[in-house]
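Standup notes
- DV: blocked on the single-chain target, sequence here:
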Amino acid sequence: MNLTEARAALRNAKKVAVLTGAGISAESGIPTFRDAQTGHWARFRPEDLASPPAYARDPEMVWEWYAGRYREILNAQPNEGHRLLAGLEREKGEGFFLATQNVDGLHARAGSKRLVELHGNLLSARDEKTGETFPLAAPDALQTPPTSPNGNRMRPNVVWFGEFLPEDALEAAQNAFHTCEVALIVGTSGVVYPAAGLALEAMAEGAVVIEINPDATELTPLLTFSLREKASAGLAQLLA
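- DV (later): unblocked, structure below
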């Protein structure tokens, strides 16, 4: 398949499913999870900061790390890639579905509504006892670890190493990729499962699966077509 054929497939598809990863947020200045290990945090592995055992050992340190990421996210703005996907949703209507591995909320801020956040959302925190989620206070008012309105300590509302993805979000994504005509895999390395498996599910059902990534990934040889571009540039080419 070439670019002209990929454009035509996307244009004519009534059902489109999209998976996005860190690459699309990197264009908004948000470092990827591992790239954020700089300065004071360079001596820690991500697994030392993003797992239930790490949190049990030192919740204050884990929250210090996430509070820094929270400030970065609030300072970032959606980029053209986010806006193009929101526009594609408006065009396709109920035939559009977006699953993101990102926890920054930028898709929603760009106007996307038909989406699930497979790895949670760092703009909120979760009551450790009730499981309810609540928005975090503004950074200058944030006390860590934060306390819920119920008076209980809250943990970051993200999926950690060793935890399962939210069942309802994963099921909705699997259904969308199982039934789509075209799937877009944007800015993701294709190594984190089960999210990476969505592309393969779509391929198995006969969908056209288009990857947008500046680098080849483990998924590249298995998919219909790959654009070696950053997220925003690749989406602009596809939607031209």
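- Follow-up: The chain has a mean pLDDT of 93.
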